[in-house]
Model the fold of this input.
Amino acid sequence: MDWKVYQTQRSKRLEIERWVESLINATMDISKILLAVGNEEVPETSREILFKVGSLVFGNEVKAEAFSELAKIRSTLAHRYLDVKWEDIKRFLQLVPELYPLLLDFVKKEVEK
Done:
């Protein structure tokens, strides 16, 4: 999908927005579970939750901060204009290939414990 399709095809736009928001919501749920199972305190904000889990998963602050951007992206999808939403969707698509495989590996190891 590109900007032109996103801007002009409402059904495609809504589909990608729902898809991204659903993935981020699932990530939030998984993150809360990981913290609870690990007897960690669950922070109050989505960004803090993702940062804390990102620190556990990735072991460095830069990737944890990138992971916590998902909270901002989710918020943007609910409240912003098309051009801002598009920029955040592009950012999500940049982050996912780098961060999600590591997250999934971490979750798999935790489940196997």
